[in-house]
Design brief:
alpha+beta; 19% strand; 41% helix; globular; 3 helices; four-stranded mixed beta sheet; Nucleotidyltransferase, domain 5
């Protein structure tokens, strides 16, 4: 149990450090990623007004595609990119929320980049 608590403490520390440096605007929102054991979520946030511009998650996918892996994260990244491109937003700031930039987080970012979002 101590190892899990230590991992969470380290992630929250990384999150605080990252958030000090990043801020999103209406033209360049912050893409905030959160992953749990079952799902992955992403929001495009305008920090000036404190509003969520768009959001996407693996909850929105079909039941057969819900098994959380890199492919699902890639699809979620593509979905958020499509929503942002509909609103004529093609740049964003990527906030990994303290998670390491490997695996599902990287796959989500690659999916958004493939659709045309620039980080």
């Amino acid at each position: 149990m101590k190892k899990i608590e230590l991992q969470k403490k380290r992630r929250l520390r990384r999150k605080r450090i990252i958030r000090k440096q990043l801020a999103g605007t209406l033209k360049k929102p912050r893409l905030s990623v959160f992953k749990s054991n079952k799902y992955i979520y992403v929001q495009a946030i305008n920090d000036d007004d404190g509003n969520t511009i768009a959001a996407s998650s693996s909850l929105n996918l079909k039941a057969k595609d819900r098994k959380l892996n890199k492919d699902v994260a890639f699809k979620v990244g593509e979905e958020i990119a499509k929503k942002l491109l509909e609103k004529k937003i093609n740049e964003a700031v990527f906030d990994r929320n303290g998670f390491l930039y490997i695996g599902r987080v990287k796959s989500l970012a690659d999916g958004a980049r493939k659709q045309g979002i620039k980080f």
